[in-house]
Amino acid sequence: MNKDLTVGDPEKVLWRFCIPLFGSVIFQQLYNIADSLVAGKLIGENALAAVGNSYEITLIFIALAFGCNMGCSVIVSRFFGAKDYQSMKRAVSTAMISSAVLVAVMMITGLITAGALLRLIQTPEEIMADSALYLRIYIWGLPFMFFYNISTGIFSALGDTKTPFIFLAFSSTANILADILFVSAFQMGVAGVAWATLICQGVSCILAVITVMKRIVSIPGNTGGIWFSMQLFKMIITVAVPSMLQQSFISVGNIIIQYVINGFGAGVIAGYAAGVKLNNLVITSFTTLGNGISNFTSQNLGAGRQDRVNAGFRAGIKLVWLISVPVALLYMFGGRLLLMLFLDNPTETALNTGIIFLRILSPFYFFVSAKLISDGILRGSGLMRAFMIGTFSDLIIRVVLAVALSKTALGSTGIWISWPIGWVTSTIISVIFYRRAYSGKKQNI
Questions:
Q1: Angle of CA points 68, 153, 9, to nearest 5°
Q2: How far, in Å, are 78, 225, 403 from residue 151 at the CA level?
């Protein structure tokens, strides 16, 4: 059901809009968590390391899909808020067409370079075959991932976060069952994990695309016979490209960090693979809520309601900090039990690596969550230069420090310390940019 985010109490409107988003990201992460859990428990530690190793490369594709999502979502939100439905529909078709071309390029490139990318990050020989197999199957499922992301971006732009949540909850639950079936009953190993994910993402994508197209058709107005608009394409890529670059550079940074981690052996790789799944569950949750703030901001700017943006910021901060408190406590004191979900008879190195990783990062979720809410407002406002500066400062600091500190007596622990330093610095930068943009003066956004 479409929802106008420009009317009503900003905090209540935003929370009702964002809570299903939070639920959706939990189920979205279940895809990857289920893969790692089944790989670690039913196949072995090397299988877990292989899935985790490939995951850092799949983040590049996820980054591009995320950019398509945000580019479409922010622009469609703006037109929906302004009630310019003809331009809104044309923006949807333009995003779909351009994304189809991008997917084709990514699939060809990915299939050709998969092995080279894995060698580039110094993948250990004992997990190379499984890493390559998992990665190539994942690449075949890229169309499903891309068009699902675009569909959910359109739903969010229309103020509807409940419908994609229902689709995702169903397919994620099915993915867990399929993982167990393919690995345990069919004895397909790592390939079974990958195929289960592809099939379930496919079902989710098809349902989402069909439903969102019906929703778009039901809204008054038409495209005027023009399905692809170069002007709207430029507007979309103005938001999409910086969002892609943000996520892509973060992924490249993570690949560099993975390269450094791989030098410490399979035990550290497995411990990190388990710990980073838990960490990414939280960070992706905050990122998705930041995306919701972008939609809220863009709709209100389209309707000329800039006064509601500051209220949205305050409501967003309350929401992410309420999430940060229990998660930080859980990871600090219950990390060992959570890691054991992924590791079957783990080595002491793997278990200790995961515990230290979570204990170092979790207290700083308060900082990074505030950054991602600020980023959401900057992106929804079209202030992409400020958005990218905040993001790249985090990335550069983390990568440089990870490389440098790993060579000291701290060893792999030095890599984990780089995360909080980057988060705190970039949070300060992003919040300053937000405050300057919405200090009470009328902005030309």
A1: 135
A2: 16, 22, 38
